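Response to reviewer comment R2.3. The reviewers asked that we include at least one raw input/output pair. We reproduce the pair for Protein YIP here without editing.
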Amino acid sequence: MSGPGGYAIVDMDEDPAGDITGQPSNDLEFKTYLDSNPAGARTSQPATGTRTAPDVPYSPFDIAYYQSYFDVDTNTVLKRVGMSMIPRDNFISEICEGQIDLYGPFWTLTTLILALYTTSTLTSSITEYLSPTSGEHITSNIPLLSTAASVIYFYGLAVPCGLWAVTRWLGIGDWGVAEVIGIYGYAMAVFVPVSLACLVPVGILRWVLVGLAAGSSGFFLFRNIYPVLLQSDNPMSKIIILAVLGLHAAMAFGMKVLFFSYTVAGYSAGPDPIGSPISL
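Raw output as returned:
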């Protein structure tokens, strides 16, 4: 309808976006058309398998700091134990996916202690039983358990801690004490099946088995420790790796003499380090 002056009257509909009272809404809404995740942008998702230290701050009296080192399942530990028997480098970065654990090394060392004590005691008992000069008295070397625990725990825990302290003092190698303990602990896994195989009462066979285990585990230590030492130009790196291999050979020799020196029929491949056994 046209009014005076040429103006037209137009009916306007109410704002459909009004509020519940029917009044038009004066609120303005803004919409962005920008991509929430533009190409090439990095998301803040935590990386998996690249962490070598706990997320909590370091504190020797905080249990939460050590918890992540034991947060591992049995299948993972068994896989790492099996792969440690195959000497290869980059064990922590590839097999452990950058996250070393302490449960596996501690479990390996404890299992080795029990295996050494059990097999050595069983072998000596068989020797006493078959010996024509000792009658049928079966003996038990209970002090051998404390000897095994002292030797294995010292070599598997104290020695790597000492190695880490020396390298840190000399400024050689960028690694943590947990990584060194992990390498040493998993390196000892090969001695568990060897200790069971040494039940065979053949002295030369035991020397061969212990020698093969020492060579395999020593090569494992070399391939995982020496590359870390080479990161520095310090001339002490070669001396340290020679000391590591020499101490490992001495440990294997001592293990053979201490725990696998018995044969049947009263003959021994080496002296009894415990002395007089405790009779049952």
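Confidence is low (pLDDT under 50) at residues 30-53, 265-280. The chain is about 50% helix and 0% strand. Further pairs are available on request from the corresponding author.
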